[in-house]
Amino acid sequence: MAVLENNNDGTAIMGKSTNWMGVVGASRSTNGGHGVLGTAFGTGVAGVSETWCGVYGETTGTANGPAAIWGDGKEGAFGVKGHARAQGAAGVAGYQLADRGPGIFGKGNPAGMFEGDVTVSGRLVVSNIDVRKELKALRDAITALQNQINALSGRITSTDNRLSSVDARLGSHRHFNQ
Known about the structure:
This protein is an all-alpha fold and about 180 residues long. The chain has one helix and two strands.
């Protein structure tokens, strides 16, 4: 069944259901045909939910880089953009539920960019360098330098005390010669 409606005054096609899908679109095309396509000067496709996801995507594909939801930002636009207003809510969140890959993957130059504080609750590995290990080595080197400074400070204090003693003895000899 094909339905074509041209309505200049409002909604052209609407589907409503109290128990299941309001509108279903399906395509078996392998070269770009869409189950549902929306084009507009405003939002092409919008989803609003009162209890779950406004837009949901799912794929079982394994070849050619499939994605449940794909965002393609053309000249000057973001591929995917998220906003959140609630306390503690992320604008964009990624979860790898089987712990077999990253929750979020970035590739580019730079692969990631942050404006503001960054909190890391696990290990931070940079360019195959374990930052925590490098910071520990740096802390150990600083401790060794502090120990050397303390030892030198003790030697300087001892030398200063001896010089004061010599100066005091010379001062008493000067007193007798006057």
